[in-house]
Write a structure and sequence with these properties.
This is GCN5-related N-acetyltransferase. It comes from Cyclobacterium marinum (strain ATCC 25205 / DSM 745 / LMG 13164 / NCIMB 1802). Pfam families: Acetyltransf_1. It is a single chain. By secondary structure, the protein is an alpha+beta fold. The chain has a single domain, classed as Gcn5-related N-acetyltransferase (GNAT) (Aminopeptidase). It is 34% helix and 24% strand. It has five helices and five strands, in the order E-H-H-E-E-E-H-E-H-H. Strands 1-2-3-4-5 form a five-stranded mixed β-sheet. A hairpin with a 4-residue loop joins strand 2 and strand 3. The N and C termini lie far apart (57 Å).
């Protein structure tokens, strides 16, 4: 019914559309500033910084999901797989497709010698939280996410 495979450069337009679908679901469509050119360079250039899987519906070969990941290093735990985005198009949720994709990423973490994997979920995304709890995922509440945008970094360093 579904197939999971490594992502290819020609998959990127469909992946960017899924990313935009996720941003809309997360009530932040204006936050997506990534481009196909950036994704090609960052995923398939001389120093790739991310990898991804695609989830296809077998009867149509249409991409209906993706899992985008990269590696991070924890000084406490060592090499970790970070699941940046995990997306299954809304119409296909609840049919087992997401389980297949998520378990492929779990297997990848072991294949690459990672000590575990990490990701984030919005506190209001109850369907996703229920899904992750099926895997006994630990939900942390004491950490606060922080970020700086390039414009702000430039501004601060110019002072």
């Amino acid at each position: 019914m579904y197939t999971v495979r490594e992502g290819k450069k020609e998959d990127l337009p469909a992946i960017l559309e899924l990313i935009k679908e996720l941003a809309l679901y997360e009530k932040a469509p204006e936050e997506v500033t990534n481009t196909l050119e950036m994704m090609e360079k960052d995923g398939f250039g001389p120093q790739p910084v991310f990898g991804f899987y695609v989830l296809e519906k077998e009867d149509t070969q249409r991409i209906i999901g993706t899992a985008i990941y990269y590696y991070r290093y924890s000084t406490w735990k060592g090499k970790r797989l970070y699941l940046e985005d995990y997306i299954v198009t809304e119409k296909e949720r609840g049919k087992g497709a997401g389980k297949l994709l998520f378990e492929r990423v779990m297997a990848k973490s072991l294949e690459e010698g990672c000590t575990g994997m990490m990701w984030q979920v919005l506190d209001w995304n109850e369907p996703a939280i229920r899904f992750y709890k099926k895997y006994s995922a630990r939900m942390e509440s004491e950490w606060i996410n922080c970020n700086l945008q390039a414009e702000k970094i430039k501004e601060m360093l110019a002072k």
